[in-house]
Amino acid sequence: MKHPILIDTDPGPDDALAILLALSARDALDVVGITTVAGNVPVAQTTLNALRICELAGDLDVPVYAGCDRPILRPLHTAEFICGKDGLAGMKLADASRAPAAPHAVNAMIDHLRQSDVPLRLCALGPLTNIALALRMAPDIAAKIDRLIIMGGARDLGNITAAAEFNFFVDPHAAAIVFDSAIPITLFPLNATYQAVASTERLGDLDGTAPVQAQVLSMLRRNRAGGAALGGDKGHPMHDPCVIAYLLWPDLFEGRDCHVAIETAEGPTVGRSTIDWWGRSQEPPNAHVIGALDADQMFARVAVSLRSLDHRHESDSKAKS
Ligand code: RIB
Ligand code: CA
To answer: Ligand 2 being an ion, which residues bring their Cβ within 5 A of it?
Structure first.
């Protein structure tokens, strides 16, 4: 059965790989829409990037909706110092041949959820601003969300501050609304996603002459340099692809139900996720938190998926000639 999913994203190099992985898995995932949000770079750029990534995948049917240009309360913080000025450092993507779809991403998310015959799985790859506002504008949609799979937070150190992970740091109020929603959540904190390092051993044998694989290789090579700056000398952790890989291959992941609280008060810990991994608090769990994954197997399957996209490219262009 194909699972209908919505992807909320701030591309972002790792978002790009996650979107390519989702679009490659047509037999397992039905991407009904992509909603963009300000995060790694401003929303005008994340929207352009999402359109360009769909173009690279050869998928012009998935609507891309532009979303919120800033967090609910805090000022916008972006991450060009990591992902480059255009947000897709290392990738040279062709311009998109289409514009974003109307309406605003928050309205589109509400419409898709209300109109779907079955509950959707929502993949959150960036700050949770769009999702939190959709829940506030239309509380009824919570019943149409089968599960929220979120990349964000950290059990230990953050990556944008000592305390906080980037997605939750950018919009902690949105994260607090989502974790208070009682919607089933699977959370990928940094402790899990830092295991998903796109090392040469794991993805070095991609075919640099094929369109999709060449772009991913170029992004990874550039991020490998950046990865060293983040303490990852073997390459850049691919945070967001873990979310899609979980939908495709859940057997590769292990976790436990925990209570997760988000710090919204201004100060050195704003945006921090307190993940009660050892069940010390009396608070009931509100998320299934991933703690371990088989990264070698995950990337082996990601490589197969990327090759399938290039094979699809090849057969589509042969059919057109
Ligand atoms: O902290 C990592 C997360 O922040 C990833 O989703 C990355 O793309 C950025 O959005
Ligand atoms: Ca992201």
So the answer is: 10, 12, 15, 125-126, 240
